[in-house]
Design goal:
The complex is a heterodimer of chains A (290) and B (380). Chain A has 290 residues and is of the alpha/beta class. Chain A folds into 2 domains: 111 residues, Rossmann fold; 150 residues, Rossmann fold, CATH 3.40.50.261. Chain A is 34% helix and 22% strand. Chain A contains 9 helices and 13 strands. The longest helix of chain A is centred in the middle third of the chain and has 14 residues. The radius of gyration of chain A is 18 Å and the shape is globular. Chain B folds into 3 domains: 72 residues, ATP-grasp fold, A domain (Dna Ligase, domain 1, 2-Layer Sandwich), CATH 3.30.1490.20; 125 residues, D-amino Acid Aminotransferase, Chain A, domain 1; 149 residues, 3-Layer(aba) Sandwich (Rossmann fold). Chain B has 13 helices and 18 strands. In chain B, strands 7, 8, 9, 10, 11 and 12 form a 6-stranded antiparallel sheet that branches. A 4-stranded antiparallel sheet of chain B has the order 1-6-2-3, with helices on one face. The chains are: A alpha/beta (290), B alpha+beta (380).
Chain lengths: 290, 380
Amino acid sequence: MSIFIDRATRLCVQGITGRDGSFHARGMMEYGTNVVAGCTPGRGGTTVEGVPVFDSVAEAVESAGANASITFVPARFATDAILEAAEAGVALIVAVTEGVPTLDAVRIYHRLGDLGARMIGPNCPGIISPGKSKVGIMPGWIHSQGPVGVVSRSGTLTYEVVDQLRIAGLGQSSVVGIGGDPIIGTSFIDCLRAFEDDAETRAVVLIGEIGGTDEEEAAEFVRGEMSKPVVGFIAGRSAPPGKRMGHAGAIIAGGKGTAEEKIEALKAADIPVAERPSDIPELVANALGR
Amino acid sequence: MKIHEHQARGIFRQHGLPVPDFEVVTSPAEARKAAQAFGGRVAVKAQVLVGGRGKAGGVKIADSAEEAEGAAGAILGMSLKGLTVKKVLVERAVEIADEYYIGIVIDRARKLPVLMVSDAGGVDIETVARETPEKIHKHAVDPADGLDDADAERLASAIESRSEIAARIAECLSGLYGAFIESDASLAEINPLVSTADCEVRAIDAKILIDDNALFRHPDLAAMRDPDSETQHSRKAREMGLSYVKLDGDVGCVVNGAGLAMTTMDLIKRCGGDPANFLDIGGSSDPAKVLAALEIILSDSNVRSILINIFGGITRCDDVARGLLQALERAEIGVPVVVRLTGTNEEEARALLKDRDLATADSMDEAVEKAVALARRSVQ
């Protein structure tokens, strides 16, 4: 088991003929992901890395049976690409693209809700279920299969944590990067709920950061609805207010969204919060009773 | 991206909001002339991209053209939160009967724009939200449907019982919503929106923040960027695709990824040090970016050590090492550098850097400790 993706995932790579698209298509295939199609308007009928390219996602669904997509499309075309995938009946869309306008993300979120599709991202590294499938840009080799679910707003910070988990002998069921933008398709709570329902997952690591109130809402969910142990980490304790720290969503605005508030909310829900990434494996081992 | 009040007024006016006539001038003599043309009382307001201008002395009321000249003379050249005032806005002062707040932001939890109105106008809305949240009325709008007239009227009635004025406020809400959506704003607000004794409504302030991610489809708005609002180094960082925020400490940081960069800063603090900056070089290991990052950090005279913390995933550590070698050849680095490169091609990176005068570390914790210690040592 795992969440959102597994061996049954049949992936369409949107923007596969581009530099990033072809590079990561190869990386995902090498990891074992079942990449069944690529999509670039005007390039239908060609192949990339042996994968057939279609002009539209609808054709990729019809001819190749794609049920998930990942977008390597520049920001100005990403909204149309994501909506196209959802309209074509793709159930899971991983939006790696950085720089999607916020009002577009609003539009996408509500339209996908109507269509029953899920977007992970935008501005995210994607998702990996170690040993099964990788739909993202993360380095596969740092992961190992096991009982720990990881959900994070970050990219390389997640790699750092996963690397330390692996070294400590703590494998992962699925690792989801939900993205650093203010409006994202899949929230902490969506992932926590999926991990709670996933038989393979026995503990969850939640990696948050300053900005918004997603961590506070996640803490409330853990307190009320989760039986599995959760370990937290919050980046940005030293971030000044009013400054965007790289991610569009990582900003303390109007005194709200500080690391202190989030850490307090997590602790109030009995979630142990690591002071350093290197403290996370021990907290997870404790949670697993090891 | 922030834009000036006078620019935001222009946008609001295009959307039918009742923005009084104003002039933007750069000298006391021009301010005098503008005040003369308006006649009577005028307001003189600093045009500078910081909040709290009024409290800081950047807004003055003048009863005559002479006074306006004096007020402009006092405000022009003034430093407000580190920015020098180069322009002032002059407008006929409005006789205020009541003040209101109207604004729109993105509600991240509901994933919709939300209109906020209050009859506690003219004061800091965050203070109102904290101390008397019941005075703020909210309404989320799905952009697919747009703002319904009935909802605008209901909101306006919540803050103004006189129907004539409420109807005008409702029109303002529709105009504000239109300006917000069409400018791809992340915030649009009027504080205060005022009513006069003869039941007119006037927008005597204007604030808009534009979503940086949407600037590609608004070249007219992108052109409003004030080059004076960012330092030379911030501009260079932006143009090179680096995320950079200058801080007050002495440990410079070069990191790949925003979350890892924030965590690096946090660990520096935890170790008793003080980060000099936030800097995310992004996913690319382009040597030019690494070089630019080092140049920006070295331009900060507070910096006493530099920590390079890279977790190579897609970014290859040997590429970053090559960028660093280029930087070492081209730039005079007068402070100690600690390098931590982990992940893809870390062995190759280590081999490339082994004969260099660099401190290395295997873990982030160790790298942070070394960088903080080196910064302290060079202070003594």
